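Chapter summary example.
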Amino acid sequence: MEVALARETVPDRAFRWRDRAGEMHAPERMETRHVFFTLRMIWNHSAPEHLKLRPFRRYSGFPARYSPDYVRRAIRALIAEASRRDDLRPEWAAELRWMVETATEFTTTPKIEGGD
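The structure predicted for these 116 residues follows.
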């Protein structure tokens, strides 16, 4: 179930997601579940309160490497990758569509809550 995006979705092939253990992941090589829940976690920890998806599990101790520029790039890269997937569960696709539709309201500089 591909999700049509309202804006450009050229994949960022150079982007790598750095997980808590410091391992680097190319989004196109991540499982769909991992892409979606990584995106959801980043979104919920950096979006304004009214845009957070519920339920929301708060994590703490994000390192400084999750800079506003990195977070912005991660959101774009993971939205683009998730939107290309044809195996999104319907509830994931609905949340992804909502993120795409409300991303224009995401006017604050994204910063991971709980970061150093």
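To summarize the output: The CA atoms of residues 14 and 26 lie 8 Å apart.
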